[in-house]
UniProtKB/TrEMBL annotation, chain A:
Species whose genome carries this gene: Aquamicrobium zhengzhouense
Superkingdom of origin: Bacteria
Transmembrane domains' residue ranges: 12-32, 53-70, 76-92
Cited Pfam families: DUF2160
Classification via InterPro entries: DUF2160_TM (IPR018678)
Name of this protein: DUF2160 domain-containing protein
Protein keywords: Membrane, Transmembrane, Transmembrane helix
TrEMBL record, chain B:
Protein source organism: Aquamicrobium zhengzhouense
CDD domains tied to this protein: TM_PBP2
Bilayer-spanning residue ranges: 12-36, 70-89, 96-115, 160-183, 208-225, 259-280
UniProt name for this protein: Sugar ABC transporter permease
InterPro entries reported for this sequence: MetI-like (IPR000515), MetI-like_sf (IPR035906), Sugar_ABC_transporter (IPR052730)
Highest taxon, organism lineage: Bacteria
Residue ranges of every copy of the ABC transmembrane type-1 domain listed in the record: 66-277
Pfam families in UniProt: BPD_transp_1
Amino acid sequence: MTLTWMAWTWPTAVFFATIFLLLAAMCVWEYVSPGGNPRFGILRFETTRGDRLFVSLLGSAFIHLAWLGLVGPNLWWALALSVVYAIGVFRYV
Amino acid sequence: MNKTWNNKAWFLVLPVMLLVMFSAVIPLMTVVNYSVQDTFGNNVFFWAGTEWFEQMLNSRRFWDAMGRNLAFSFIVLAIQIPLGVFIALNMPRKGWGVPVCLVLMALPLLIPWNVVGTIWQVFGRIDIGLLGHTLAALGIDYNYVRDPVDAWITVVLMDVWHWTSLVVLLCYAGLVSIPDAYYQAARIDGASRWAIFRYIQLPKMKRVLTIAILLRFMDSFMIYTEPFVVTGGGPGNSTTFLSIDLVKMAVGQFDLGPAAAMSIIYFLIILLMSWVFYTVMTNYDSER
């Protein structure tokens, strides 16, 4: 079976590998500290660390899209902003 | 109460995870791969980077389709929610009328999307359709094939006909769950019909109404089959919603790169809505 129809490229492979590693890291975190660390943050509803990862990834996607549409194709600053956003989400949400 | 942790149960979820992997995750990965490349067929791809995303985000065509989709969702919600509540409030609570009304309400929901589209496509035709022919006989200039406003009216009416029942059934379920004691207390206090609605029925319907609004928003935002069958996205592009535009781009023009970029943006919006839906639902559950 070949995967040529999936049209893999190195950047997209690295992207998915990063997502996969993040999920694996979350599994390890859950194993070390079970229960998901639920808490009420600034959004005023209960979130677990899985919720916080989801909000971080989804928000990062929109940050990148907004940067691309409003600023330009150099996405390194968008990535930096997303990292700051993700830290904020894990700290306060 | 102490919970028993048994992680072996995860093995039971394995089949569905494999199924989702093959039916959703792998196709999604492929779409992401397509979105950063260009192709002319034969499995030959050229790196395009973020070009298609930029093109899509700066495309008038994309934002027009998005605007039409949002307008459509807003209009159908503005009609279906009040109408659904009104019908539910006036449905009988006991006697033979209950099953009759429930069956009548459920009927449109059982009809497949393409059949609904075909019914309304024929219904609105001015030569043979009951609606179109009657309006023409009354001297009203109605033609959904030629006039964008008529096309919109037809598509909105069709959606209202198809989906208001869902709102009705959800609201009705909320209404019948209100104990009689509430109404008796209201009668003793001499509450008006409006006060009963505002302070008893509406709060009790809050949960189901939220579900109805979110379900109808998401469904109307993803609408494809019905307007495609009735108008094909026309006249011009007047009823071309996001999903119709996406299919035109991917299948009609074979622009796989831009179509993949558009799919991802569309998917992210749907994902955001789904998250809101999930969060609202689970928070209501925890509040109860």
